[in-house]
Amino acid sequence: METRILKITAENEAAVIDEAVGLILSGELVAFPTETVYGLGGNGLDPDASRKIYAAKGRPSDNPLILHIYSEAQLYQVTRFLPDTAFRLAKAFWPGPLTMVLEKADCVPDTVTGGLPTVAVRMPSHPVARALLRACPVPVAAPSANLSGRPSTTKAAHVIGDMDGRIACIIDGGDVPIGVESTIVDLTGEKPVLLRPGGIPREALERVVGPVSVDPAVSNENLKKHAAEIAVPKAPGMKYRHYAPAAPLTILSGDEAAVLDRLRQLQGEHTGILTVDEHLACFSKGTVLSCGTRAHPETLAHRLFAALRRFDEEGVEEIYSEDFSDTAWGEAVMNRLLKAAGGRFVRVPAPEGENPVHTEREDCKMIAVASDGAGYALKCEVIKYLEQKGIPYRDLGTDSDAPVDYPVYARKLTDAVISGECTKGVLMCGTGVGMSMTANRVHGIRAALCCDCFTAQETRLHNDANVLCMGERVLGVGLALKILETFLETPFSGVERHARRVRMMEEV
Questions:
Q1: The whole model's pTM is what?
Q2: Could you give the residue numbers annotated as active site?
Q3: Does CATH place domain 362-507 in 3.30.420.40?
């Protein structure tokens, strides 16, 4: 499909809008700017258009879409019942970055709502979006105009990179002003429930309608604790990993000085660091990008997705970010970062004494983790353990339980250990045998297949093993984590005869 790129100006606005509306009414998709992010729009009352949206994004069809409207009359058209809270919020924040979840009318297709009896509706304020919706006789279903799972698009160039050849038209309206998606609030219960933090802070909602609770699935504290994935998402962005750059992202939180010191230790040629303007001078290696300034926290939201996409353009292999929770936009920004990180969140201990930096504790060093499909479930449990202990790690394994060639992932991990990027590695497959055999083919790797804590302790004390191998089909999770703990906490004895034997192993 050839995608039309239409740069909108004051002179050609009417022609561009007419062409876009014609495409939407003929069942095609049009990307357009809103005040939050770019949207991928189709006829909100046409089930086939919704299916095209899911296909273009590669988005699961149980992830609801938002209907964009121009007038209050359309709100009555697409909903069955409007509570008083809806009128109060609409008066306060529409047009603007607020989405309300309401009981849907029969005319709204199930393909828009993910099969739910509710519909998400918003009235955007961006002048291009307003012009498009004013001219369009139907509501426009529009998620963010990016490939599913990728960072949202805040520039036309981002949309072109993701959607060129997938949709009929992209309206280039320049950079969007806010940079994160709308706030979503569910009004179908007795009290309002926040389903997604965004362009309207929760405190502003509460000034209009009173207390607003937070759905556990989007609580940032729960996201930090690697909360269980919910079964039925009530709104966009609740169920699936979102906003993710290509490289793994880890968030470091804690005392500012300790976090900055840890980030300095982690910086490198192929590493990305996401920081703020005030801390740019702290780093000298790798790709260092500012997300904004704490003095003007709205800049953190405005520049977040562009920074994540820039890391992809630079080809970094891993990304580390500061925690921005302590800012006025912290709830919305951290919601996106935590989802992009997929649960990789490390709490950096506060400094102790007068010389807190560059500590040599084992649990402060990077651990490489990898598995094939048969070891994937155990790998997830290992990652949870490392996060709970505040141990930074690199996930170099497969991302599902589908069968894969395990030597590929074993070699990725051994490369990370040999290069010094990681101090130790943990490999998992069905039995652990294949991974250990592959790892031990690499000079400098001393991989130990362990099925009990005694073996894990002895191989560290006597062999200075640097890679632990475990079998998911052999070990229960509880025992596997005890073995891991023993392996990580046991130092090499350094006894001369053991050191001599380790050197002899390296000469083989």
A1: 0.68
A2: 372, 429, 431, 462, 498
A3: no
